[in-house]
Amino acid sequence: MQISDEQKNDVVRVASWRRRDYDLMAIRSPPRENALVMPYLAEPFQSPPESSLGSLHDLPAEVISMICRGLDVLSLFRFRQVNRHARVAVSNLLEYKAMANNALDCLRAVLRTGLARRPTFRVLYLSMCSMECAQCGFFGGYLFLPTLERCCYTCLQESPNLEVVTLSTFSKASGLSQKRLGSLIPIVHTIPGIYTIWEKKFGKRIKITAKDVAIQSLKEQNLGRDLTNHEFRLSSRQEMLRHMAAVRIPFLDNSTNNPQPTFCCKGCQMILERPGSSHAAGVLRDREYLKDGFLDHFQSCTEAQSLWTSNSSDTKTIEEPPLFEKGGFVRPLDSSGNER
Ligand SMILES: [Zn+2]
Ligand SMILES: [Zn+2]
Fold it and tell me: Could you list the residue ranges that cross the membrane (predicted)?
């Protein structure tokens, strides 16, 4: 279907919707909490530094930046707290600034799940500037914390490579204690909350790990039993546990340093709501796009094209489901009426 450059924004507005529940089905801090901590994390203090950086003082600023880039998230946060000088040095780092301003949930998730000793800000920043799901190559709006790789909603739910097991299960199978495993494999200390469209709250903090990456880590270190062909019994809460190991990550266009909005297809949702729709239609419905990706998809989605044609005609002939207005299946407010 021919659309002009001037029509592109209108096509996206008419034929796409924003699934707000995608944000809710991952580790997340309430927006009011993020708003409170944001100024302290993103900016240095107003008053200029008085003390120096001690023995680091004589190093050129570029060298200090290089050292900072090599530190893990927790160490860099601790260094930032040393004094105002350190706070300025860290706050001005490109990677730190970009993460603190655009991906606060992601940073807080790394800290709250006990993974902050693993990634550097550079690794997180590079994930924010990439767009593809490491499993399927389509756009991925989540960061899977055990591997620190992007993934899409469907792969987060279904990919065998992202299977999650509890630490106690993995410990028994590997023959290594949970304490020992703590320094050998990535472990996510889960955060209680609601993670699925069924809105069932999971209130306990447990330790989980991603099966494949944990097996690979032990193999590389030549430790524990070889679990390559081990049949793990997966928890009945597998889907929820996967979401408890993931956080939303925006895509940052590094030419402008601006985060880019994502879109889902209204047409694909409407196809899925028809009786007898297939699993493939569900996968397509769950796909998320950046603007250009959505416009490409629009060219192959007859239902999205019908919405556009209907909207352009004098009388709108297609009625849209209320789901689009609501932003998905998960309620955005908690029981107290606050934004979740
Ligand atoms: Zn994927
Ligand atoms: Zn579509």
Answer: none
Rounded Cα distance between 212 and 91, Å, is: 35
Cα of 153 vs centre of ligand 1, distance in Å, is: 7
Give residue 203's pLDDT: 79
Q: What's the gap in Å between 104 CA and the centre of ligand 1?
A: 23
Give 251's contacts (C-beta < 8 A, 6+ positions apart). 128, 129, 130, 131, 139, 141, 259, 260, 262, 290
Closest ligand to residue 133's CA: 1
Position 171 in a domain = no
Residue spans of the chain under pLDDT 70 = 314-316, 335
Residue 129 inside a domain? The answer is: no
Between the CA of 293 and the centroid of ligand 2 the distance, in Å, is: 11
CB atoms within 10 A of CB 13: 12
Neighbours of ion ligand 1 (CB under 5 A): 133, 135-136, 152, 155
Q: Is the dihedral of CA 65, 70, 72, 75 positive or negative?
A: negative
| Structural domain count, the chain | 1
Query: Residue 283: inside a domain, yes or no?
Result: yes
Range of the domain at 292: 1-18+261-340
> What separation in Å is there between the alpha carbon of 56 and the centre of ligand 2?
55
Instruction: Tell me which amino acid residue 30 is.
Output: P
Kindly give the distance from the C-alpha atom of residue 279 to the centroid of ligand 2, in angstroms, as a whole number.
14
**Would residue 315 count as lying in a domain?**
yes
Q: Model confidence over 248-294: pLDDT tens digits? A: 999 999 888 899 999 999 999 999 988 988 999 999 999 999 999 99
- Closest ligand by atom to 162 CA: 1
